[in-house]
Description:
Layout: H1 3-19, H2 25-33, H3 37-64, H4 68-85, H5 92-123, H6 128-152, H7 160-176, H8 194-197, H9 209-237, H10 249-252, H11 254-279, H12 281-301, H13 308-336, H14 339-372, H15 382-403
Helix pairs in contact: 1-5, 1-6, 1-7, 2-9, 3-5, 3-14, 4-5, 4-7, 6-11, 9-13, 9-14, 9-15, 11-12, 11-13, 12-13, 12-15, 13-14
Amino acid sequence: MNTKLRLIVLSFLQFFIWGSWLITIGAYWFKTKEWSGAEFGAIFSTMGIAAIFMPSLMGILADKYFNAEKLFGVLHILGGAVLMMVPSVNDPGTMFWVMLLNMIFYMPTLALSIAVSYSVLKKEGLDVVKDYPPIRVWGTVGFIVAMWTVSLLHIETSASQFYVAAGAAFLLGIYSFTLPACPPQGANQSNKSLADALGLHSFALLKDRKMAVFFLFALLLGAALQLTNAYGDVFLHDFDKEPVYNGTLAVRYPAIIMSISQISETLFILAIPFFLRRFGIKQVMFFSMIAWVLRFGLFAYGNPGSGLWMIILSCIVYGMAFDFFNISGSLFVETQTKPAIRASAQGLFMMMTNGFGAVLGSSISGLVIQHFFTNPDNTKDWHGIWLSFAGYSLVIAVLFVILFKHKHDPRAVDTTQVEPLLTVEQA
């Protein structure tokens, strides 16, 4: 098997594991276990909690002590073992700790999968910038295939989805030990402090007003992402209570409908260079926020019957909502910081979106839905839920236009042509 194909398998399985349960755990939680929304919000916050500290800690181990591919494999095997435990959990409090342990093992593998792929490609003399993106796309394909698998097997509300994820985790864990060795590069890290390794010095960037505002909105948009991941599939499942929608495509295969979001994501990535050159980073990030308003607003008025087109359109605009902020935001960080702190600054960006943003979005949304949009019979006011999320996104968009000051420079699309503005000392 050639190098690229081997890394494609790695990327595919990496996201197949996540796609097997991330979108459908809500249906399992509310339909099978009938636990509360506040507790469900806490479950989704486990991803953010783990994302705050685990990738950096595992990165230190891979840099100094262990082969990255072996550490990657061990984490997946441990994660698979935890996923096997999930179906036996019958208490939401215990479920929180089990899922947190699973996320502690899984979240650092996202970064390690990139580190392993980069190391293997460089050893083969391949161009990382040119050759890695087509490999990474297969991760999104893996996520989509997992959603389709769970949906076609009709196990979206069943504990079996966790067995599917666990099987893939065990397979990837074992497979990783067959990959080319990626030994630690500890010699280059000998004088690096723990604060450096964890990227803590990048917090000095927050002393610059523009960067502080940017990272604040990164946190707020990270919260929005958790809303759609947590509740989209549950929303479609709830239509099965209305006889008029029985047998409709969206009710029978909600995960397949939701997978349109991931398909759209792969397509909007291709449009980013044009939009950045034409409109600039600030406008592109603003488009992302308006896309979130449409994402939630279309859900509020959509249904599996005559309103199916709204649900499908909502899934299509998700690609713009997700990609236009995450990728253009990463580029903004790239062009605004010096190389010496660029990796740490990117880590701070991810910490704000997938860490603090995810924790706040999951926890607060669960409490809000439980207290304001859950009826006495435990049904949910989905129209009100999605409109409140749309209103939240609209407020963010308006505040972003007012507070974020940035002048468009067409050269910023090519990071080699723009002198980065900030070092830690300048910030």
